[in-house]
Amino acid sequence: MPRPASTLEDTTAFIGGGNMARSLVGGMVARGADPAAIHVAEPVDALREALARDFGVRVHADAGDAVAGAGTWVFAVKPQVMRTVCEGLAARAGDARPLAVSIAAGITTAQLSAWLGGDAAVVRAMPNTPALLGAGVTGLYANAAVDAAGRERAASLLSATGETVWIADEALMDAVTAVSGSGPAYVFLLAEAMEDAARAQGLPADAARTLVTQTLLGAARMLTEAGEPPAGLRRRVTSPGGTTQAAIEAFEAGGLRTLVAEAIAAATLRGRELSAAND
Ligand SMILES: NC(=O)C1=CN([C@@H]2O[C@H](COP(=O)(O)OP(=O)(O)OC[C@H]3O[C@@H](n4cnc5c(N)ncnc54)[C@H](OP(=O)(O)O)[C@@H]3O)[C@@H](O)[C@H]2O)C=CC1
Ligand SMILES: O=C(O)[C@@H]1CCC=N1
């Protein structure tokens, strides 16, 4: 249902209300955004109802209803369905000329602009799920059709959920995706492995969970608050001939750095493949 034109600039529509949209919406509302000015289109009843219940945002089953009257359209669907979703909204985009923000891995601003009918103002954003806690980080790239006000609007929307970093070369957005978009999963994998190892050493499961999670939280806070590069922080834990040195030597012998580089290269490549597969 159309809404008054006076709300146009302030209203944000999300197309897709899954995991990442939920993190962004939750982060925005927690930091004072008006829930009534956030509209979400999501086909899954349970997800839609949970968004309305938990955050007070307006929800719709149909994307056309969500974008009506919105000045910013955030595309938060999977890369594989992005083309169909954009093409379904192209006629409306031609009339409304919204700022389009896509958070999809791989999909380029050229693809998005073409699918939305051409000459669309598109910001490609890559957030991550800690956005829900206001502790996210988002890489941003704007195409040439985005003016200064559009850049400001995109940065303001995403900065409600954490830090933002503008990326000048769009080709690097696949590396951003591989480092920080996917990155929380790498930390969760490390947490799983540390918990498994703690239990293997005989620690009870609840003690293992507390020891691991608080260690990761404390280390992450030191990384952000101590003003020292990670290598320096690591050296100050590592007593010569002590326990940490024994562990670090095992990590290095096992090729941890090479493994991390390979994992990030694989994720970067997958982003490029997602773009090519959807052309
Ligand atoms: N999860 C993450 O950590 C991050 C994800 N991203 C990107 O965010 C995007 C979404 O990922 P994520 O949230 O994990 O995926 P989800 O599958 O959790 O969410 C996408 C949602 O969009 C729904 N959907 C499908 N078609 C439409 C449509 N036509 N209109 C409205 N909604 C629709 C899906 O429903 P259904 O399931 O029925 O298809 C699904 O509920 C992806 O492009 C991903 O690359 C970016 C950064 C981090
Ligand atoms: O796994 C993915 O493809 C998405 C993009 C970054 C995080 N999740």
From TrEMBL:
Catalytic reactions of this protein: L-proline + NAD(+) = (S)-1-pyrroline-5-carboxylate + NADH + 2 H(+); L-proline + NADP(+) = (S)-1-pyrroline-5-carboxylate + NADPH + 2 H(+)
Protein's pathway: Amino-acid biosynthesis; L-proline biosynthesis; L-proline from L-glutamate 5-semialdehyde: step 1/1
InterPro entries with a match to the protein in the record: 6-PGluconate_DH-like_C_sf (IPR008927), NAD(P)-bd_dom_sf (IPR036291), P5C_Rdtase_cat_N (IPR028939), P5CR-like_CS (IPR053790), P5CR_dimer (IPR029036), Pyrroline-COOH_reductase (IPR000304)
Pfam families: F420_oxidored, P5CR_dimer
Protein keywords: Amino-acid biosynthesis, Cytoplasm, NADP, Oxidoreductase, Proline biosynthesis
Molecular function (Gene Ontology), one example: pyrroline-5-carboxylate reductase activity
Family the UniProt entry places it in: Belongs to the pyrroline-5-carboxylate reductase family.
Protein name: Pyrroline-5-carboxylate reductase
